[in-house]
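For reproducibility, we list the full input for the fe (ii) ion complex.
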Amino acid sequence: MNSPSHRPKLIERIREAAATWGFFQVINHGVPVSVLDDTVSSVRAFHDQPLDVKSKYYKREEGRGVMFASNNDLYRSGAACWHDSLQAWLGPEPPEAEEIPEVCREGVIAWGSHATAVAEKVMELLSEGLGLESGKFKELTFSESKVFVGHCYPYCPQPDLTVGITAHTDPGVLTVLMQNQVPGLQVKHGDVWVDVEPVHGGLIVNVGDFLQIISNGAYTSVQHRVLANSSKEPRISIVIFFNLAKWKGDGYYGPLPELLSPEKPPIYRDFTLKEFVENFYGKAIDSKSIIEKIKIYH
Ligand SMILES: O=C(O)CCC(=O)C(=O)O
Ligand SMILES: [Fe+2]
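The corresponding predicted structure, in tokenized form, follows.
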């Protein structure tokens, strides 16, 4: 990702992938594979512990600290999905190190900073792909608000009757994901669900709703889901969501003015953070994202 002579090509490839697929995989990202493997093992070790140890982290209030739960949307959704998750809100207000379970503390902290470095590089390329300065996304604080999520999809004896995570789009700016070798993630491309084969050492990056909106539709936030795990080995995936942080402007979010012109009018109306948050927390993860609500029909 670093060679200057490849940069224009890289910008174009990432722009194209983010526009058409909304998902892409990065390799040669500079994070040692041993860091990825160690983090996956330590999250697995957390989930392998007896329930009475993990239940110390049970809670339902989101937004800060550390939380262990099965489904964030348990009370908003018609059915629960076949996974457990350990979450840590790493920014803008990081938890005290002691709040993070000891068995995976080092992994959570290390992955948090490596994933941020990768996300910032990708954000530079995505920003340039829109014709903006490479530092624009960082200036807009897009890498500041971040949540670590260590998912575990245990063996499911009847995988045809449930799913690991229902189809949804991610709400924020960008998601960086790594996984062990157990498959399950699928991405929607047109009307087809496409399997994402795990690549050892590869990182998956996907566009969230907020990035689709601020790019005025140039980048696409696509639906994805995880099938219930039919293998005896648990599937581990570790995600960092980069969400909305503070905004430099007047409290309203919307398509970046730099991208708009009489030929390219906004296709989304502006909205407030309150509206965004209420929309997210008021629904099950598989129901309509804010994108549908704020679309302008020309
Ligand atoms: O486990 C995965 O591969 C995907 C998880 C996911 O989509 C999410 O946490 O939003
Ligand atoms: Fe997701």
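The chain has a mean pLDDT of 92. The longest strand covers residues 145-153. Both points were considered when choosing residues for closer inspection.
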